[in-house]
């Protein structure tokens, strides 16, 4: 992990989990795996507080533990998991877009708590949805929340956590110092059969009380409205599935901007068919016939089978190569080349960065080198149709910023400059890594600026919070409008303007952070793809 990534992790842990958790997490980032006593000694923190901090980090999947060969337990922090905190608003917004307010609240609760049982999640969501509703409507909200939870699991946005296996009754051996979590992949997306609505009826039948109506019994004894036991099954957010959804959305948007809305809808349909069966590391989606795509295509478009085949042929012949055709029997099978799509998205991102930073002519040279791979300086000037002096200046600037690279090909072993070819080229993975580090630096600057804005206006923010608390308490006691207006006037007009300016600046910083994170996601996905492509031939 780079220094910039560790800085971001430290800021995020401090902002979300407090100083002690941030101190322990930052120490693990810098030192790697360490046992409990050594962490407490190095951070000068009591062992009890270190234990609580590690519990928080383990519960949110930031830290994992393993048993050392000498018998003690070591703890290791995964910085990539901490960096996901930047993407929490995007996860929540995606859940809201796909599953409404209930899905939004379910994902939000799981992100805030790390791991939870289904009954605890549904109960918290129902409490938030039915704060002003009658008790009769809570059963309806129970049904909606539980159904939404099941749909999130079925589409793999939520998954089971590992559990500790129960020891055998006849096993006298001592428990291990570090428990091993076991998870059956077949049950990872299987929801236990929990009847959320008939719980009151079942408990009444078991206890023998049958003389009172169900609604009356639930109102009289609210304990019996509790959700059933979950048998120790905990759930967590499946971040890989969300990342797969973000990748699919980016591919659909790219196809729509390059071709048209119908082509993007065809690609969306192909991705939707194979979204659960295709892993996040797969290079292609599963092959689909045109008949399968036609049956799953939305009926609102009124697209005939013949026109669909023409669109599929257009997509497979497009230079972007997002859609590939395999086989010729029965019309062939179509699949989406995910690695190629991510490479195209990363290339477009890098090109936009070059254009914004160096200008349109430099972007023209960059695209030319991407297409031709290796060119001499004179060839770049001729193909790009740019004067020699300007082209030389642009290439040297991009060379100094590691946007393009210079490759030497000597004719003789002495590497004499007069007998050496100097070719300019583009190494897209290296350039993507460099831009990714600059994005991390941007995130660090945004977080620092937001903390500075909050720190400079701390007194005004505290005053505003006190006034809001007073107004809320007076409204609860039935205060008149004149009294509330007098309390509002405690904040002067200049202070109100300062608060509005602070709110605007913080919103702009948050929006910028989300936009930078979108670029980070595209570049990280592309770099991970190139790493997978290198590992696969090595294994073979």
Folded structure, characterized:
- The chain has helices at 3-17, 19-31, 36-43, 47-59, 79-83, 88-113, 118-129, 135-154, 199-207, 214-220, 239-258, 261-273, 290-296, 305-317, 338-358, 360-372, 377-384, 388-400, 428-456, 458-476, 481-488, 493-539, and strands at 34-35, 63-67, 73-77, 116-117, 158-160, 234-237, 288-289, 323-326, 333-336, 405-410, 420-425.
- The radius of gyration is 29 Å and the shape is globular.
- It is mainly α.
- The strands form four sheets. The chain has a three-stranded antiparallel β-sheet with strand order 1-3-2. The chain has a three-stranded antiparallel β-sheet with strand order 4-6-5. The chain has a three-stranded antiparallel β-sheet with strand order 7-9-8.
Task: Map the helices and strands.
Layout: H1 3-17, H2 19-31, E1 34-35, H3 36-43, H4 47-59, E2 63-67, E3 73-77, H5 79-83, H6 88-113, E4 116-117, H7 118-129, H8 135-154, E5 158-160, H9 199-207, H10 214-220, E6 234-237, H11 239-258, H12 261-273, E7 288-289, H13 290-296, H14 305-317, E8 323-326, E9 333-336, H15 338-358, H16 360-372, H17 377-384, H18 388-400, E10 405-410, E11 420-425, H19 428-456, H20 458-476, H21 481-488, H22 493-539
Helix pairs in contact: 1-2, 1-19, 2-3, 2-4, 6-7, 6-8, 7-8, 11-12, 15-16, 15-19, 15-22, 19-22
Which consecutive residue ranges, at least 5 long each, have pLDDT under 50?
196-228
* Mean pLDDT level: 82
Read across the widest sheet, the strand sequence of neighbours is 1-3-2
The number of distinct helices, counting runs of at least 4 residues, comes to 22
How would you sum up the major sheet? 3 strands, antiparallel
């Amino acid at each position: 992990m780079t220094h910039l990534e560790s800085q971001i992790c430290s800021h995020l842990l401090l902002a979300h989990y407090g100083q002690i958790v941030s101190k322990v997490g930052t120490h693990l980032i810098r030192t790697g795996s360490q046992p409990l006593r050594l962490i407490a000694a190095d951070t000068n923190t009591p062992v009890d507080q270190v234990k609580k901090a590690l519990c928080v980090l383990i519960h949110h999947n930031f830290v994992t533990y393993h048993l050392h060969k000498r018998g003690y337990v070591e703890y290791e922090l995964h910085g990539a998991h901490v960096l996901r905190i930047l993407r929490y608003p995007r996860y929540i917004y995606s859940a809201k877009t796909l599953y409404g307010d209930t899905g939004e609240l379910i994902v939000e609760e799981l992100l805030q708590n790390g791991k939870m049982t289904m009954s605890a999640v549904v109960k918290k969501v129902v409490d938030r949805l039915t704060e002003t509703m009658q008790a009769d409507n809570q059963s309806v909200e129970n049904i909606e929340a539980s159904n939404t939870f099941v749909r999130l699991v079925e589409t793999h946005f939520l998954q089971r956590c590992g559990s500790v296996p129960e020891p055998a009754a006849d096993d006298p051996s001592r428990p291990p110092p570090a428990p091993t979590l076991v998870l059956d992949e077949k049950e990872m997306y299987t929801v236990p059969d929990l009847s959320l609505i008939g719980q009151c009826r079942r408990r009444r039948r078991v206890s023998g009380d049958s003389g009172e109506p169900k609604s009356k019994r639930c109102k009289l004894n609210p304990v019996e409205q509790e959700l059933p036991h979950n048998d120790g099954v905990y759930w967590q957010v499946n971040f890989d599935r969300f990342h797969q959804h973000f990748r699919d959305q980016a591919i659909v948007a790219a196809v729509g901007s390059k071709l048209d809305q119908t082509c993007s809808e065809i690609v969306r349909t192909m991705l939707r068919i194979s979204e659960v069966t295709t892993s996040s590391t797969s290079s292609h989606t599963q092959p689909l016939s045109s008949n399968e795509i036609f049956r799953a295509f939305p009926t609102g478009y009124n697209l005939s089978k013949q026109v669909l085949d023409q669109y599929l042929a257009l997509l497979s012949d497009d230079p972007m190569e997002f859609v590939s055709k395999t086989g010729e029997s029965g019309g062939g099978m179509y699949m989406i080349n995910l690695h190629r799509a991510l490479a195209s998205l990363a290339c477009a991102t890098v090109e936009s960065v070059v254009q914004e930073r160096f200008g349109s002519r430099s972007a023209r040279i960059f695209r030319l080198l991407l297409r031709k791979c290796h060119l001499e300086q004179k060839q770049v000037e001729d193909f790009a149709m740019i004067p020699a002096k300007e082209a030389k200046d642009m290439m040297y600037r991009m060379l100094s910023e590691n946007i393009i690279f210079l490759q030497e090909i000597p004719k003789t072993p002495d590497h004499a400059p007069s007998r050496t070819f100097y070719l300019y080229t583009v190494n897209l993975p290296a350039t993507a890594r460099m831009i990714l580090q600059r994005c991390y630096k941007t995130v660090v600057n945004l977080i620092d600026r937001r903390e500075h804005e909050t720190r400079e206006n701390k007194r005004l923010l505290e005053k505003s919070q006190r006034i809001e608390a007073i107004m809320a308490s007076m409204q609860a006691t039935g205060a008149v409008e004149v009294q509330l207006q007098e309390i509002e006037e405690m904040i002067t007009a200049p202070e109100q303007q300062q608060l509005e300016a602070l709110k605007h600046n913080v919103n702009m910083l948050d929006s910028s952070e989300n936009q930078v994170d979108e670029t980070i996601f595209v570049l990280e996905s592309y770099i991970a793809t190139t790493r997978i492509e290198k590992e696969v031939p090595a294994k073979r």
